[in-house]
Amino acid sequence: MNVLIVVGKLELGSIWRRALERQGAQVALVGSELDAIGKMAHQTFDIIVLDLVLDQGSAFAVSDYANYRHPKARVVFVTNTNFFSDGSIFQLCSNACAFVPIATPAEDLAAMVEHYAEPN
After folding, report:
1. Do 69 and 60 touch, CB atoms closer than 8 A?
2. Which one of 47, 68, 94, 98 is CB 3.0 to 4.6 Å from 117, fit for a cystine?
């Protein structure tokens, strides 16, 4: 399982990365739209953990690029807001498979990532 984590708070992303690596995942961690697109230009990812509110760039641009460059990759959106809590994120981003609070325990997030990364 090849995972890309895109989150503005790299210390939080590091916690998620360790939880995923314990499950045997190969994980890349970046903190901006530009870095995420750079990674996706040279590497294939099965699933992307994407902070909806990035400090640098747009999560929607990352999701759109992933949909174009890696159409089979799914996106687990994480957020610290209740914006899109109505589920509309799934209408806006066809590669979205989950939408969870940023405070979700790392082990739970890792289990969700493992589940959605499995081939259909």
Report:
1. no
2. 47
Bridge partners of 6, per DSSP, are 30, 50
The answer to pTM > 0.70 is yes
The radius of gyration of the chain's CA atoms, rounded to the nearest angstrom, is: 13
Residue-wise pLDDT tens digits, 37-50 = 999 999 999 999 99
Domain count, the chain: 1
**How far is the first Cα of the chain from the last one, in angstroms, to the nearest whole number?**
14
Look-up of token digits 């503005």: 8
What is the C-alpha to C-alpha distance for residues 67 and 73, in angstroms, rounded to an integer?
Answer: 7
> Count of H helices and E strands in the chain?
5, 5
Strand intervals (E) in 52-92: 74-79
Domain range enclosing 18: 2-117
> 101 - beta bridge partners?
79
